[in-house]
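The freezer alarm interrupted the setup, so I double-checked each line after restarting. Inputs confirmed:
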Amino acid sequence: MEQFIELLNQLQPLNLIQVLLWGFAGAMSFYFSLGNARVWTSISIGFFLVFLSQAYQLNPLAESYYKLSAFHYIIGTVAIMVITHGFLEYYVFCRTFEISGKKAVVYLVTFLILVASGIFLIVNPAPSPNTIRNIKMVENAIWVFLSFMNIELIRKIYSSIKDSAISKGFIAFGIVFLCIFLWKGSELYLQVFQWDKEWMEIVTLTGEDSDIALYPGRVQFSQMVSQYAGLLSSISVSGTFVYLYRLLK
Amino acid sequence: MSKIFAIALLLTLVIFSSADARIKVRGQGSSLNFDPASIAPEFRASYDLMNRKCTKCHTMEMVVTAVQTGRAPVTGQRFGKQAVKAYGIKMLRRSNTDMNKQEIRNVVLLLNYFLDENAK
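Predicted 3D structure, all chains:
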């Protein structure tokens, strides 16, 4: 409990609100996946996984067990892959009205991918702070690339179904991915130039040089974009699922 | 003659142990600590700092055990230089450490020195 309170103290208020909103979005998307057609399963499970990946900020064990910390970032990577798979399925469904597989299979395969990722971490050495940062950077790179791809997929889905009642829901998803693109993209930008918080902590201890002081404007702007776009992502996902739920009810 | 040789061999095997590479320590149980006399002069100030500040939350016995065994006593995870770095980062993030960045860095360097000495 003491560790949990200390974690809350370390969190910035905006980050705490963001995690709580992702919690709400995760609950909404999971509930949505249970009560809706097979075509929504991957999309909603993926957004639920985003919450699990963000929950590391409230997990007191992740601070001490480095493999657990790395696992949260791997869940984030799996999340965007599952979401993208879901939008691809939806696009194919729009064009062909065909959808294969059962909901249970989607849940099971996602679970097995997570188990395999866990085994990968167990059989490998405990990741160092540098390795955890690398895993986080890979996660952000995949999110940025696939968010861009999803925006294009969503545009195509919207073009196919623009006369239906649900089409506005896809505009909302487009806004979601724009926010996510900015959120993850700004984090990736800071990481690539080694201006992110984790790298700063590492160089504080290793004594390496950093050029962060030369670019205060870029760093502050990127940090601000990351913080607010992250917050808007969680709000927009919650809003989108509430809106879709009402539409499909 | 062969009996004497066999007994001598047996005794040798029973009492044989490999050379102990461990860092020098003093005290026992919860008062176990590194031997200050064996610490290089440039790390003495960091050692004093560690004894003053780190012991507010845990005993030095935990640190000695981690350095000697290569395993963190609470989590059971490997305790090497990367783990020391991770502990340093954990301390940097804490709001209640009562240590500034430079002090945390000095303790990290001291722990790395202990690990090197223990491996000699």
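Quick read of the result. The interface with chain B takes residues 6, 9-10, 63-66, 125-126, 128-130, 198, 201-202, 204-207 of chain A (CB under 8 Å).
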